[in-house]
Amino acid sequence: MRFLILLIALIPVSGFAEAFDRPIPQAQSATAELWFFLATLALIAALIAVARVVARR
Where is pLDDT greater, at 39 or 20? Predict the structure, then answer.
């Protein structure tokens, strides 16, 4: 009888788990797109500045 109880306790119950629902990504706001654009321009400007400094040496 103990063996039967142990056997039942070891049966996985993952078959009863709820299916995973992927979260739907939200669209970016206009403000976020503006900040991303400004950050992109700043990065490009920094890369150009570094390239000019390195080229002089």
Answer: 39
